[in-house]
Amino acid sequence: MNPDPHPDTAPQWRAEGDACVARGDIEAALRCFESACALEPAAAIHHERLAATLAVLSRYAEAEVRYREAISCDPHNADLHHGLGWTLEQLHRLEAAVDAYREAVRLNPRADGSSNNMGNCLQALGRFDEAHEAYRRAIDGAPRVPLYYRNFVQTKRLAADDPVFVQLEQLAGDAASLERADQAELHFAYAAALSGVSRDDASFDHLLKGNALYREGLRYNEAESSGLFARLAQLFDADALAAVRGLGDPSAAPIFIVGMPRSGSTLIEQILASHPRVSGMGERTEFGEALVHCLRRDPGDPLRIDIETLQEAGASQWNALGADYLRRMERVLEESEGPVARFTDKYPFNFINVGLIHLALPNARIIHSRRSPLQTCLSIFSRIFHDVPFGYDLGELGRYYRAYDALMAHWRRVLPAGVMIEIEYEELVEDFEANVRRMLAHCGLEWDPRCLAFHETTRRISTASSAQVRRPLYRTSMRRWQPRRELLEPLWEGLGPELAAADAQRASPDT
């Protein structure tokens, strides 16, 4: 006998919704949970299921409403406050998220996940002392969760006798008892802690172990990435760009900051966001989303565009792409900042899309953030990034950097003058004011001395550099400790002799 396709009670609708979630039919689950809420509006569990499903669909504003309805039904449920906090995080309302997580911890002092997430939000807001307290609470509540240690030690240098350092060292001695993914997290956390007490050789040994473990769990097609870069350079040469130039949306509001991760882009954005006419929007993926929406999709993968058809795009498509991107960003700005004259978008991997950005938004300005290849790669290798699959093997990392460098050299050759400038991190540190003036002039912004005091600007920063850009510039940030040459041989081979020689020229004698 087939089950009744139309449940009669709210619990039955909820059970049917859970079954839909289990088989991946999220839209059907949504309808089931809505029916359960309609039948039993005072039952918090129905609203919670509906809120969580809306969040899966990235409908966070609606999810917030449902979490608040659930909380009104069951105000002492810590899990509901945690869900609300997570939803508010996705809406970039971090102050409100902190309040929600704090209430979850008040209701359940052992809610380690809420303490950890609260720490992440406080860190992004620049409230580091409070963030460190939250991380300590998370570790106290769950001392065998390596993620909590990693979040903590990436923004806090611990003394060797700090209780958290001691706990981390003990856990590292028992790493074999953890799941493989947790072992990788643990090695990254312990590596950062060891670096903080200048045990650099031991730190790099743990980085090698952590990266190797993390790489095992990733799917990364190196040939596909390098092939994409090469094909874009072929499709969009100077003639192809000139043929359709000026057909996109005329807005001059966006300032794109592109480059490799850990190359100084967060610093550049913080400087620009210190200008009263600029809002720093952080790492946004809206251009890629608009690209998939507006241009022909790959028939084998609906989440990707068909690269070979890009040359066929005409004025209407480039204009639509630019307009769609601006609409998406306007929604984000309305939710967080309100109307602004200019905004930054510092998603680093937009370096792939530089030519397309220029066609869709010909008056947008682009800043390419560059740093020593070795320092960039070592910094990437020292951290877990969830959108950097090439960063966990030194050879793959070096080859990716070389392919990125070649693509950026192509964009540099084919873009018209005045569209993109390059900011070298080392030059920015050495001659700060001159480079700040150069950036502002490039973006058509008048001089403002607040850009020199960037570390005093209060704003949300969710990248791995959130702690560094809260401090004035310091020259020791230019060259980090590096391991013996033989340990880095795969990286040097991947980078190739030209980049290796260029990197050697960047190294100053006193570092």
Automatic annotation (TrEMBL):
Any Pfam family: Sulfotransfer_3
Xref: InterPro entries: P-loop_NTPase, TPR-like_helical_dom_sf, TPR_rpt, TPST-like
MF term (GO), any: protein-tyrosine sulfotransferase activity
Keyword Metal-binding: no
Keywords: TPR repeat, Transferase
Coiled-coil ranges (or none): none
TPR repeats: 10-43, 78-111, 112-145
Name of the protein in its database record: Uncharacterized protein
Organism this protein belongs to: Paraburkholderia monticola
